[in-house]
Amino acid sequence: MDDPLLLKNQVCFPVYSLSREITNKYRPILDELGLTYPQYLVLMALWENEPQCVNEIGCKLHLDSGTLTPLLKRLEAKGLLARRRKSCDERVVEINLTDVGRKLKTEAAEVPQKVMKAMNVTAEELMELKEVVLKILDKQSCNS
Amino acid sequence: MDDPLLLKNQVCFPVYSLSREITNKYRPILDELGLTYPQYLVLMALWENEPQCVNEIGCKLHLDSGTLTPLLKRLEAKGLLARRRKSCDERVVEINLTDVGRKLKTEAAEVPQKVMKAMNVTAEELMELKEVVLKILDKQSCNS
DNA sequence: CCATGTTATATTGTGCGCAATTTAATATCA
DNA sequence: TGATATTAAATTGCGCACAATATAACATGG
């Protein structure tokens, strides 16, 4: 009954389930903007600060070039951003939003509330979730 | 500063990050058993109850046939389980563990503690995390 | 018994995620 | 300067996730 290999005794499995459930809630909402959830995260990073190189985005989102390079190319193909190597260091690819990409933030403004509604949770529950998750997440960063 | 589109104001992003961080902690530990995290989940489901059809496993793990069929084929290729259509209803594929697959539970017994150690968290923190996550996860099931 | 609908799994296609390797540019040091 | 090391992206390969569709088996009504 308290066998640590029983599914009901798992802690990580609910986190994994919730994470997928969340992206499922985002999907129809982001579909209207033509975005996936990881693409939306990249855009949020760029809406905050621009330009940013691939590495900077990767640090903030904990994603590597194997994930980001094709994702950024897809966003470029959609006309939302431009990829250009820096002249002072040709190894670095700098990402700039296009006007369309910048403007998309306006359309995305309603996404958070729509998701919260779709998830059927209160702001208090979300804050509680965030607090607990961040506390554990912080402990991973040093030795990951 | 309290722009809902700022990364630091996101609730779902930490959940998404933590979920990936967790599977990263599992990876080296499960590598020793030749398993991925989703494969480990499927085996936990089967260690609890056997045989199970694809659908039953999918319900427990919230995964569909598009994910499970190839995953189960890989576990079959590893010799851990057998897939066989039921004679009474040929639509249903029944999954049985092999002796090797059943025996693997013994080797997996240490996985949970190893992961907990790798994550550097206390049992209390994990219980707190589980409680909050399950509370929110429960609210999704009905309208997903 | 046959047509129609339903059900269970499989297949296809797209997009992550990540390890491992490659490529090219820059830095360093003998 | 020229060999070596380091760094940043890109590439390759594999395994999920999931939508959409296909396939085959079963169920049901006329």
UniProtKB/TrEMBL annotation, chains A, B:
SMART domains in alphabetical order: HTH_MARR
Location (main, coarse): cytoplasm
Gene Ontology molecular function, alphabetical: DNA binding; DNA-binding transcription factor activity
GO cellular component: cytoplasm
Domain HTH marR-type: 8-138
One biological process term in Gene Ontology: response to stress
Compartment list: Cytoplasm
UniProt superkingdom: Bacteria
Keyword annotations from UniProtKB, A to Z: Cytoplasm, DNA-binding, Transcription, Transcription regulation
Transcription regulation among keywords: yes
Classification via InterPro entries: HTH_MarR-typ, MarR/SlyA-like, Transc_reg_Sar_Rot_HTH, WH-like_DNA-bd_sf, WH_DNA-bd_sf
Official protein name in the record: MarR family transcriptional regulator
Organism: Mangrovibacterium marinum
